[in-house]
Amino acid sequence: MKTNKTLKKIVLILIILVVSFISLCGIFIKNTNRYENKIPEYNYGMQFAGSRVIDLQVDLTEEETTIETEENENQEAETTNEEEEQEPETELVPVNSPEILTPDNYKKSKKILEARLKALGVQEYIIRQNSGNGNITIEIPENSQTDDIIGVLNTTGKFEMTDAETGEILLDNSHIKSSQVLYNTETNGTTIYLGISFNKEGKQKLKEISEKYVKTEDEEGNDTTKNVTMRIDEQEIVSTYFGSTIENGEITLPMQEGITDVETMQEYLQSTGNVAAVIDNGNIPIVYTLEDNRYVFAEENNTINLIKIIAIGMGILGTIYFIIAYKKKGILASFLGLGFVSILLLLARYTNIIITMEGIFASFFISIIAYLYLIKLLKELKNKQVEELKPIFYKNLKNTILNLLPLFVIAIVFALQPAALVNSFGMVIFWGIAIFFAYLVWFAKWIFVDLECKGGIKAK
Amino acid sequence: MKTKKQKIIGIILIVFLLMGIGITLTKGLNWSLNYGPTDIIQMSLENDFENQDIKNIVEEVIQDKAIVQKVEIFGTTVLIKAKTITEEQIDSILAKINEKYELEKTRDDIIVGKISNYRGRDIIKPYIVPMSISIGIIAIYIIIRCRKNNIIKLIMEFIGELVITVLIVLSAYAIFRIPVNSLTMPITLIAITTYILLSIRKMESIPEKIK
Predict the structure, then answer these.
(1) What ipTM, to 2 d.p.?
(2) What is the dihedral angle through the alpha carbons of B45, B48, B51, B56, rounded to the nearest 10 degrees?
(3) How far is B80 from chain A (nearest CA, A)?
């Protein structure tokens, strides 16, 4: 019976050692000419993986514009009948007029950029603004979406619905309530739409526009249809007329029709989502120019090495304490603790948790709690009769659950947040608690209670 | 009744917090280079280089701490950040880098600029909503668990001590001039979480005492 019990413990230790080895070193399998680690890499945050840094500077240049004088207007009308065109009178006008370069507009611009980053699902970003000149520096993670995001940040987001003939502005950003991406699949493929909802004033205006801009013909059957043109940042999205009166204040603009493959659909969903993110958050009051766009490596410091040294040091100290205080049971508890940390690290890889400093601190925190649980359990079970072991274990478990409830609340709330720094903390604690109950408590019971009870001897 | 020991601890705590608040209001916190406003120099060295070598040159010239990072995928461009880099120091750094790497870079070949600070309120903003929700839920849990006791007093104590915990961390940063960096928020979070767990544990024993 005793041999059987020892064998079970040795098997458990071997399993923990294998899991720990896989977690810390990985599984390398030869693939053509090189060895590849089959265990996913950690998903590091900006602090450890580097970031894309973009500098947006307030545009202080001047642009040439035509002076709206009577002479120029007459000249414009005459040139249609003349062969030789005369240059209209122009003047240099600042891209950003001095009146709009105010602290309030600087703040508003920053706020809109932040809202766009959130709408685009960027989990980690740093925005710095020079309050004196309004210049903005943004840091975002480097991945396949980075260039698209920079494209979105660098647009003003000016939406306009104009009369196609006269260019008169009928609706603009001030009339928009929200926008979203929609799609509809039919036999000829999928069509992706940009849905725009207008506010109260916009709704009324849209109703009037949709009554006016319709398909018409004169008495001789010539097409006299009045079209509207919709533009985002001066780029024409669609030029069309209305088939019926729009009373609900919503329009859907077809962005791409007849999509038949998933890849193209994803691409257009992404690009239309970017457009929605731009117009949904209003237009930036100030025109910015992209001054610099660079990938900056993570700062080379010894943080990660220091963290590893601290972790190993704590592990060794914990093991020494366990062995001195609880002898053989202490060794088993040390292996259980090692298994806990190893499984947590493996889960961090497989669940793609963004590794930030908050996440690293959370992993230390939950590991310390796991070690404290083992210490408390061993202390309570020490020198107890076998029949007392189970009641003591369950009482300890009940107290542990009650004590960890607030931590579970923090873990859930933080894990549901999109911001990487907060999410990382919550996710690590959440998975830590899951491993705590699914692995640590279960195996602790098996080793220190069930096997002892089967042996029918007094626990040492 | 408070014991003499408790009174002394209370007085020390009040002095510590007042000192922390005073220093924060007068001198401000000690922002690390990554969070505070910095002067930057960016230049291409055309070949691979060791960050530490550049760091040594810069720190020798400016007599202060500097951050050196590689820029762009080939890693041949360097980005130097420091609190202040004067015109003379830029020339000196340029001359020393030219000498070390046998380059002939001039002021026209380098980018000199400034990076604004990362505002404190932007740093704490992501944590406010989740922490408030968590504390709210935990407060409800306390109300349910300790309903036989003076709930208002318990909740007030819980929130008051929580605020003091945060203030102690911030005061320590202000008094000991610990640089506010990427470790600050994780440390504060762990301090808050530890306090919550300990106070809940303390409250668990209250109903039994009353029984």
Answers:
(1) 0.90
(2) -60
(3) 11
